[in-house]
Task: structure prediction
Amino acid sequence: MSDLTRLTAAELAATIASGDVSAVEVAQAHLDRIAAVDERVHAFLHVDTEGALAAARDVDAKRAAGEELGPLAGVPVAVKDILTTKGVPTTAASKILEGWRPPYDATIVERLRAAGTVMLGKTNMDEFAMGSSTEYSAYGPTNNPWDLGRIPGGSGGGSAAAIAAYEAPLAIGTDTGGSIRQPGAVTGTVGAKPTYGGTSRYGLIAFSSSLDTPGPCARTVHDAALLHSVIAGHDPRDSTSIPQQVPDVVAAARLGATGDLTGVKIGLVTEFGGEGAEPGVMAAYRDAVEALTKLGAEVVEISCPHFQYALPAYYLIAPSEASSNLARFDGVRFGLRAGDDGKHSLEEVMSLTREAGFGPEVKRRIILGTYALSSGYYDAYYGQAQKVRTLITRDFTSAFEQVDVLVSPTTPFVAFPFGSRTSDPYQMYLADLFTIPTNLYGGPAISVPCGLSEGLPVGLQIMAPTMADDRMYRVAAALESTVGVLTPPAL
Amino acid sequence: MAAISREEVAHLARLSRLAVTEQELDTFAGQLDVILQSVARIGEVAATDIPPTSHSVPLTNVFRDDVVVPGLSQDAALSGAPDAEDGRFRVPRILDEEA
Result:
């Protein structure tokens, strides 16, 4: 393995900027790594070799011409296959979009290109981001680099696994109920969900529009902050994008790396005290809290009584929005069409197309969402879930009047073996138990490695108030300065 | 909360434009029942006075100046469609010959 793939994004950018190595060499090193290990990891659905090398050559040419380069120029990045990439296959890991090449870039992809990053390809995921294990990809699961027989988390398992397997130093994920943080936790990487509206959703294939949030995956907190600062900011093409200055998350990460948390008040969520979580996960969590205390933070318990209703609320709201959003996949304008043999009506063609194109988890959620929105059940399910959302927001508001950030384990359990939770959907949904409240509230949260349990990574989740993303980066970087960066076994 | 029947799942699938198989109906009915029993706890939060929150960001209409800007070409817009004809999306016939 080339040493270049072991460098952080910050180190790679500095090395390229100094002229010690070319962007093409860096891109080739990562493409070689993908060629060597991805057959076993399956982090990528599509590798854009020619596009990556062309982008790298462009960076090298600009540097040779003396042009000013961005802080991540020439650094490779992998992109979750739910973001549209012009001319590059985009499937959302679904058969219904197989072979589709979008005619436009998502805003985030535009920003990545403008910053001079080098897009290696598209990463695997649960179909339409519905899942917690990347077992629901229509193109086969991704394997966790720590143990190839275990799940890499979901839905952004491909992005997290690409980072953990040294196939890419940076990746983009999307987080609807924990799909950046949960894979980050179980692969020993850093995953951040920015404030909802802090990163553009334009060109993100919608699953649950009021929750979907794109964000960074990396091996270090500083790298995640660098990527965050490139992709964040107001986008006039997204009406939910917040027209405010994004806080300086890179400066916050650097401040945190000094290891001083004096004056920072951290809240432990009483309701996340361990019920349903593995003992090893709770032990690593308690060690992390102790480490934060030693760095000078003041730690107090905070009750958020409605967090216990977050999971049920989420599993009514997200499928409801999905049942509406996925109506556009009807065989008319995108990808697959089935039953178009002259013997079926238009309605039958749509039904047959959706039957052939959607996998079981997507169908289950569409039906569940249709049920929750239907007359007679709307008030009892969807309406009540929206009220719970108000109560959870109030819990957060009250908590952040008392503390700067809240912390919890990111996941209740470490990476589990394939197939162990697919027969009971609700057991699978429990993987997002700790991550979902922030999605309903809209605030930012990050998962940072905090230790091992049974030889597998455990993540600490740090939650912050809306548009205070810098706070979580500071605390995360401080923890990283004592815990260090986790290194998976050699592949 | 009422349990969800196999017939109800079939009806919801029709509403959702999903042609599900007999086997899927059996599987989904059981699984949706488990999910609905699990999320039924949401009814414990008696909250008639609590306003619902549909979105974490206050939503307002966003208008832009009515200026012509470059958009997708017709060819680009049709490029991902399963079928096109005369510059339009081609869909299956919905009317009989004599209609």
